[in-house]
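== Sequence and structure of one protein ==
=== Format: two labelled lines per protein ===
==== Data for this protein ====
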Amino acid sequence: MKKRTNIKDIALASGVSITTVSLIFNNKANSIPQETIDRVKQIAKEKGYQPNAIASSLKTKKTKMIGYVMPSIENNFFAEIAQRVEKIVGTYGYNIIICSSNYKFEKDYSSISTLSSRMIDFLIYCPSTETLTNGNLKRINELLSTINIPYVVVDRQLDGDIKNKVVCDDHQGGVIATQYLIDNGHRCIGCITGPLETSSAQNRFAGYVDCLMNNHIAYDRKLVQYGNFDVNSGYEAAKELLKEENITAIFACNDLMAYGAIKAIKEAKKSIPKDISLIGYDDLIYSQLLDVPLTTIHQDMDGIATAIGDLIINILEKGSNELTIKVVPSYLVERTSVCRKEA
């Protein structure tokens, strides 16, 4: 079996000290000439050297690993956040481990426990719907208080002593979406909510209700259907809404449910936007590629990722203890799925 190349081999071949090689591979080579850094890295590449992460973590007390527990890897919103955060923290040598809970509390709990036992340096956490019900939130809060790892709760707010949060202004987004439909002459507006256990769904729905009231439009319970932030629930909810004869527009509280609504509208032999205007929420990459590009509320994923990335670096690299509660604004992206309803 071929002997594994170690740091001593690289130092000998490069004509530098072991300390110099160590500083280079630990991103602490501020006082080392760039020519030396390049030479050492080139020799390491030629010899197939891979730093021993376990040995390094024992010495530095850092694993350079960030855990990210998300509700579903299938939801492009969460995957996009992971990708953008990794670009930020990657410049400091950190990597992200992703765990998808599939909307289940027990998977949330076990993922956080496992990541903690793996000595991650930081946790990014977006709770599953199940975590917010049936007393599960108390168990999660107790777990978070005992893991002794800095963390941030993303997208969905948790009650309790949560020190760091990065969320979108979902109420504002719900108001903007509903007002846009009203400004285009629609008054019989259906709403497909997300799971109301989550703060994001609650606040978007509240924005819809408040906007109706502000425009002196009566709230009609029959125009509201409850989804689960996935395509199928949007499809089933839209089928129910389309039974209402006077409905002319639908606000789907995320883009995935809007995609499901599109299927239901097509099956009902109706067209978008002539018969039914449709607006989504998230501005996923696919929304601009549809046959009728989707008008939607843009969630500033770069802004969210930057807030998370900056928090991680400030805590892990700069020793900051400052608490972060960041609310990221959203805005409307006009495409062609909404048209003006003539009086």
